[in-house]
Amino acid sequence: MQDILLGTHRIGTGHAPFIIAEMSGNHGQSLEKALEIVDAAAAAGCQGLKIQTSTPDMLTLDSREPDFVVRGANSDWEGQSLYELYTTNHTPFEWHAPIFERAAAHGMIGFSSPFSVEAINFLETLNCPAYKIASFENNWPDLIRRAARTGKPVIISTGMADLADLERMVQIMREEGNEQVVLLKCTSTYPALPLNTNLRTIPHMRDMLGCHVGLSDHTMGTGVSVAATVLGAAVIEKHLTIRRADGGPDSSFSMEPDEMRRLVEECTQAQQALGNVFYGPTAAEQKSLGFRRSLYVVQDIAAGEVLTTDNIRVIRPGHGLAPAHLPELLGRQVRKPLRRGTALTWDAL
């Protein structure tokens, strides 16, 4: 699989995960706060900043019939109609340009999740550099196809998708000649529990479908994202808010800026720590070799005297012969006098 290039950032094997801060509705319908979230994402070290492009009418009907009222998904959403929830959550179209511009000023990639073909058409007028298909939209082939036809990277969350769904997503991308696809392992509960995250799916999905795979993480804390990094996640997406106490549709499962900074640092360190298969002392360990045990003279020894467990011992530091040689040295004569504290070497025999 080839790396995917987003600006100057590479997504692929051997790179630290591309970390996306998802703003969603955490702006609380304030552009000033939205820009504050962009600044916080940049300060935390995120490479991507994602918003959502929708209107309530793109998503649902303005109705309080039972099918259109939220029950049991998230306590903050309970009892709202879908239309009310999406009204609170949506990002006004006129905010998109200033948000993307602020992200670009920080060197971040600003992009969006479109919730309709019309949303993609609008985002194309802003030269949106990539698209993210949300889990709840991943069963809509026309939306994926329109995103694929832009020729830009398309990141697809796979919440609730079965194998047939996954194959369909990737097939649509490839039918449109677009190999720049990243699938995100996702558990579509808010918040999600580590127990339900099934991270071992990440390498399996990558090998089965031949594309880059990451994680859309709705769990609390950094542990799940770090574990996903170790399993090869090329992208990590986390919701970001300034303060969970501010409330909002997604605040309860969003990270605060200091937490996001730790996540970026820990995922980067986890990827670096993977390294390569390597045995023996590393270059950094060379100075530590002296603190190992080795064979030393512990009593003065005259020329011609025999080596015994009384006059040589296995002690620190590590400048003498290795302890494994002790059995073959016992009983041998030395050819020159050796003083107590001398590192035993072959030329002494």
Please give a structural write-up.
There is one protein chain. Helices cover 31% and strands 15% of the residues. Helix 1 (31-44) runs parallel beside helix 10 (257-274), helix 6 runs parallel beside helix 7 and helix 9 (223-230) packs parallel to helix 10. It is α/β, with parallel strands linked by helices and 349 residues long. The protein has helices at 31-44, 56-59, 82-89, 93-105, 117-125, 141-148, 163-175, 201-209, 223-230, 257-274, 326-329; strands spanning 4-6, 9-11, 18-22, 48-53, 109-114, 131-133, 154-157, 181-186, 212-216, 235-239, 294-297, 312-315. The radius of gyration is 29 Å and the shape is elongated. Strands 5-4-3-10-9-8-7-6 form an 8-stranded parallel β-sheet. A two-stranded antiparallel ribbon has the order 1-2. Strands 11-12 form a two-stranded antiparallel sheet. The chain has 11 helices and 12 strands. The two termini are 58 Å apart. The protein has 2 domains: 8-54 and 90-274, TIM Barrel (Alpha-Beta Barrel); 283-348, Antifreeze-like/N-acetylneuraminic acid synthase C-terminal domain (Type Iii Antifreeze Protein Isoform Hplc 12), CATH 3.90.1210.10.
